[in-house]
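Transferase (Lithospermum erythrorhizon), 415 aa
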Amino acid sequence: MANLEEKVVAVIMVGGPTRGTRFRPLSFNTPEPLFPLAGQPMVQHHISACKRIPNLSQIFLIGFYEEREFALYVSAISNELKVPVRYLKEDKPHGSAGGLYYFRDLIMEDYPSHIFLLNFDVCCNFPLVDMLEAHKSYGGMGTLLVIKVSAESANKFGELVADPTTKELLHYTEKPETFVSDLINCGVYVFTPEIFSVIQDVVVHREDRVNLRRVSSFEALQLATRSVPTDFVRLDQDILSPLAGKKQLYTFESVDFWEQIKTPGMSLKCSALYLAQFRLVSPHLLASEDGSKKPTIVGDVYIHPSAKLHPTAKIGPNVSISANVRIAAGVRLTRCIVLDDVEIMENAVVMHAIVGWKSSIGRWSRVQAVGDYNAKLGITILGEAVTVEDEVVVTNSIVLPNKTLNVSVQEEIIL
């Protein structure tokens, strides 16, 4: 009976406006966690996955954006999914573990037996239910979602070594200079409430060190200039590394897709991954050709119900079209995200691009790129309210908001 009554809470760390500078110009007018991928805010893919956890009582979003930026979304998604979602604003950045500890009383108000912690900037299939079952079988304090990547890319993430049989975390190092392992941390965790005691120990230890060093004003000045605040606790360096090999942390390996979303290019790639997942778990979200008055659909495509598309348009694969978009005759869209209130006129082409809110693309124009998701100019980005006039070609470029292009550009950042 006890297991049936156990409650689970989920915490999603959403960061704040001092970060995400690499996501510009798309983060100028919307918080990065609310940027739409496959037609849904980035963080909604996490929330939908959390909703499937048995006995979930609450979902918390923790960050230092202003509350007004999340208020409408939190209210709407709580009503839509019928699960309490609450935004908690930090007074300042506390780190991934410090933010969890800062709101420990609220997180524990329902006395949950387990706490999920997810970073908002990861894209995966979020196997949370299977991960929770594995965690319970391990009997440790925490379990990390991990995945194998190429040896060349591993040092961009937290590398780890796990026991191949017991799955215990034996060694953890964040972005090492030399190769340690092709197994990396996915930024998704499940913990027992014991995690709060571990974080508290880190905070208390730091405070004790500060007090000891106050014997000298010079030493105190040196400490203040080179150390982090006592309540800033990083999950990776301050918790995972010290506890590795102590039979407290375990791993659960994902065999599905995983990416980290740090740039607009990666958001375009991840939108395609989520669209492909819709085909398996939510096929009703994908567009289909069910009538002569519908455009030609190729592959996985999301179209908001309010969008208006001419039947001679050809859309896909990997296209996401947001609210109130207007697509004229002969338009070709492939591998792109088209945001709210965009107008694309006759015979225009958009490929490997993100078209910002309220932008306009003229007749016979092309907005395109090579599709290198990791390169700075690997996709073309139009910021909000950009106008591309008739017969203009925009290639491998980034255009900041409120610009008008009347000549073709290639590999430029238009300020």
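Residues 194-213 form the longest helix (20 residues). DSSP finds ten helices and 31 strands in the chain. ok done for today
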